[in-house]
Amino acid sequence: MDRCRTCLQIKNERLVRFLSEFFATALLLFIGLGIVFQFILTHEKMNAWININIGWGFALMFCIYATSQTSGGHMNPAVSFLMYTLGNLSLADFFIYSIIQVAGAFFGASLAYGVYYGNF
């Protein structure tokens, strides 16, 4: 088991941060849009607006908690820009984070659309 763990471990710290941002943003959009799609498809019978807000809040909290140690849990180019202006992120990393976050958002939205494709 340890041999497999060391074989699959990513050594590059920047790559780990970028992958963390990608998957956190994708997961956030997948969970959040899944909640909204469920609200729409049930014609507002099973959910209320407060459930959507709580669901997005829990999704955001989970994704930040999961990635705060590796990448900071930005999941938004605006947050990455804030970290750049505060001096916590380099300009090159800011641009890469932004591209990765947009790609992750597109991937997560595509997954959610793919799951609910037959229902629309």
UniProtKB/TrEMBL annotation:
The chain crosses the membrane at residues 22-41, 48-67, 94-116. SUPFAM superfamilies: Aquaporin-like. GO terms for molecular function: glycerol channel activity; water channel activity. The keyword Zinc does not apply. It is a multi-pass membrane protein. Keywords: Membrane, Transmembrane, Transmembrane helix, Transport. It is found in: Membrane. Its main location: membrane. The keyword Transferase does not apply. GO terms for cellular component: basolateral plasma membrane. Belongs to the MIP/aquaporin (TC 1.A.8) family. Aquaglyceroporin that may modulate the water content and osmolytes during anhydrobiosis. This is Aquaporin. It comes from Acrobeloides nanus.
